[in-house]
Amino acid sequence: MSLFPAIETYLPHQGAKYISPDKAGQLRESMLELRAKGQAARKEFADLVKDFQSLYPKLTLERTSQWMNQAQILRPHFWNYLKGYGEITEPMFALRLYGTAEDFGVSLEVSFMERKKDENSLNKQNRVLNLPIQSPAYYFAQIDGVSQRFEGTEENRQFLTQQLAVGQVRKVLVKYDIPLSQTASREQVLSQLQEAMTALIPFYEATRVI
Q1: pTM here?
Q2: Of 66, 109, 127, 201, which is most buried, counting CB atoms within 10 Å of its CB?
Q3: Distances (CA, A) of 36 to 7, 21, 44, 67, 145
């Protein structure tokens, strides 16, 4: 049995359209069911984030993403930022759900909120390339508007640094994945998230260097 049954149940609905039950006609009951699934999955994710944040009380918990977007499209890949030092415009930590109902997990990342960014956010974020990286940490780089995964190797660090210098890369995140679908216990998840945090703290600190 999954440790995260609500998330597992909600993931197959990725991209579905939600209609307000009062306007859904014959679909009213199914829309009520979707809403209940979305709210339950969001709470399940938010509870995990709170448990993680309790291990790092100096981090400020931002709001968990909603179970649907403004266009009322369901989005079960929730995320939650955790602000460290500095301003809301600066790079911070985030937990983000990924995968399918059959194989899902959560990634810890060093990134910033696009909707809060200022003229210095990108420059600070991309300082993650100043440090050597080691797998299982990896890069998630935005090239020509498309985000791509790059394994955590020195070769990829050099490549992304070069591409950044010539303007081909806009933004580079550092991420670390923790599987959830086959996990035996919540304690195991939190222990693995602590390992991820230990691996990513130096990259966060690199974004803080003046």
Answers
A1: 0.94
A2: 109
A3: 12, 12, 12, 10, 34
